[in-house]
Amino acid sequence: MNERRSCCEPGPGSPVSREDVRDFYSKAAVTVQKSLCCPATYDKTDLSHIPQEALNISYGCGSPVNRADIREGEVVADLGSGGGIDCFIAAKYVGRTGRVYGIDMTEEMLAAARKNAALVGDNLGYHNVEFRHGFLETIPLEDQSVDLAISNCVINLSPQKVDVFKEIRRILKPGGRFLIADIVSDKPVPVEMRNNRELWGECVSGALTMDEFLDVARESDFRGLTAVKDYLWKEVEGIKFYSYLLQGHKFVEPEGTCCCKKLWASYVGPFDSVTCAGKTFPLGVPVEVNEEVAALLRSQPYAASFDITDPETEAPAESSSCCG
Description:
Layout: H1 18-30, H2 52-56, E1 75-79, H3 85-94, E2 99-104, H4 107-124, E3 129-133, E4 146-152, H5 161-171, E5 172-185, H6 191-194, H7 197-201, E6 208-209, H8 210-219, E7 222-236, E8 239-250, E9 262-267, E10 273-276, E11 279-282, E12 287-290, H9 291-298, E13 306-309
Parallel strand pairs: 1-2, 1-4, 2-3, 4-5, 5-6
Antiparallel strand pairs: 5-8, 7-8, 9-12, 9-13, 10-11
């Protein structure tokens, strides 16, 4: 029987390895590679406390950190943190009561990031950033210790993306979220391209299609998945590669929920209707749901879009029963 190979992996006997990617970015930490990966645009107000050296070795395809709605006191993990720019921006957002962890496998990048972390801390007046050596497939952080996981054009570099998403789920607290800027292809990348060392290091060969990316995230039980296209980066051999911002949430069902008690869920907009958890919710029409579904709709990112009522205390005037 043939062994099933993930769409994320290089082909059999591939010359591409983790060491190839590490060598690629080790050199980029020492010598600035202006053409590496994609240009990330940052708000200048987010950079005022960051040394120029850190800005020079910033490689990415987007800026997830300033679109992640980071709150003071949160714990943030930057996966594939490189020279640390996104960590340093997040450090300002989470404040002195928060914490930021940068995870990277490249010692040269870590050395530069740690050096600049001291300067960033002095500029902010507090030191809340820590860099750790590690791999995305085995993140060196405790279970349920992180509110937000971010990554800037790094997930595509891993040949084991299913393991990466399982690790992201493991480290996130219940209700935690990820926000990832990454490269998405408009069609599957062929094996011959996946086996190309240079294209892999340039964030091309390891890219997934949107369907593949969402399938991997769903397999790790993430909910509320969204994707926003930023721009077309390049086209290689007839395949278009786009920069996307992708988000998902970790939902953990509260203890004590059951499928017996019935509640009402009313969708409040902005669309005419939405489908969630296998049910269709017309705008403004209460739909009968059980406690399990109600718990999901009370969680992020759905909470702002639904009103949940208990028929024992407040019976809706108009309803659609899930019991038919």
